[in-house]
Amino acid sequence: MVDFEPNTPPRPYGILYLGPSVTTYSYQNAGYRIYTVDGNYNESSRQVLDHDTYILNITDANLTNKPKWIHEYSAKDAYNMTNLTPDGWLSLLKEFLTNNDLFLKYYQ
């Protein structure tokens, strides 16, 4: 979710990330996300540079008794983003207006 300043026109200034749940629900696989952040150094932006989502097929894990976490996607790669700044996410939201396939990929 993109958060906007209450200016006119509104300017994006933050991102609220919702990650997958490690808890399994009906017809849902467990998942987790790893965030790559601009590191710990002087004048670091502390911005999220990318995030990678991993999933566990709970049915397969129960059948084989060997849980195997699978890389599902990288945000930058999946949505062809140059960065994950607030402006980068706003650009993606605008692209959803004209690219239904990309929106459906995100929505799923």
UniProtKB/TrEMBL annotation:
Q: Which InterPro entries does the record associate with it?
A: ASM_C
Whether Hydrolase counts among this entry's keywords is yes
Q: Name one GO biological process term.
A: sphingomyelin catabolic process
Domain of life of the native organism: Eukaryota
Q: Which GO terms describe its cellular component?
A: extracellular space; lysosome; membrane
- One Pfam family, short name: ASMase_C
| Residues in Sphingomyelin phosphodiesterase C-terminal domain copies | 27-108
**Could you cite one Gene Ontology molecular function of this protein?**
acid sphingomyelin phosphodiesterase activity
Q: Which UniProt keywords apply?
A: Glycoprotein, Hydrolase
- State what protein this is by name: Sphingomyelin phosphodiesterase C-terminal domain-containing protein
